[in-house]
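Q: What structure does this chain adopt?
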Amino acid sequence: MPTIRVIVPATSANLGPGFDTLGLALGIYNELEVGLSDRPHLTVHGEGKGLLPEDEGNLVYRAARAVADAVGAGVAFHLRCWNRIPLSRGLGSSAAAIVGGLVGANEMLGRPLDRAQLASLAARLEGHPDNVVPALVGGITAAVVEDGTAHWVRLPAQDLPAAVVAIPDFEIPTALARKRLPDRVPREDAVFNVGRTALLVGALAAGRWDLLEVAMEDRLHQPYRKPLVPGFEDVRAAAREAGALGVVLSGAGPSLLAFAPWPRACQVGEAMQAAFAAHGVRARTLVAPVDTEGTRVQAHALRR
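A:
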């Protein structure tokens, strides 16, 4: 049977103040082989092998099924997943699963849904659009959902610095991280974040990297989540001392994302890793560009 290959980038959401709204796609990828089948079939390789279900309960398969249900197609899918995005580390693994399943199924069914419909369906499955939209369209995005429809823009950011990600060797499930957030916040904190989000969007669009340290400050989620990450403040401080332009919790954590000039990226990563180690936490670091393509499809799957 004919198959296709779907390539989906990792993502980092919030970028500090843009809670549940801002996100970017990273040059770290999951791959998915998709075909039609007479019965459901799914296998997992790489990150999550032995942990993720290899049946219809897998999020990738549930997303593929959502497309088939949306268009009334009574089909089953053959899915093979090669995962490189770490699980429960704040790098959009669930968004990649959802977007990969949606795009793969939509392609196999003749593209009955357009990109706007896919984005809205992805946001509905994920619960918010900050990760799924950049995973789908690439780049740095601002997104909201109104009446079930996702609305987004891609920021015209050019010549972006490197994204340095420090990934600690422990997980924080998103549900746990959300439980740390208060139901209400002081007005001054809300105003603080509105101002920082506006400044961050402007700084990214204008290439004003000198503003990132101030623009990426946050009072809505990081102060409540940082106790879950041993050494959080020391890791941020080490990254800044090594030359980082701005350092934030990646999504719900526990990974930290730093923007850094490309010549300083490796030093920033080493400093973050050493700061984690000083708190007894093993961490790996990745230096990646911002992915500008989003999810893409190739006509023939790569056989492994």
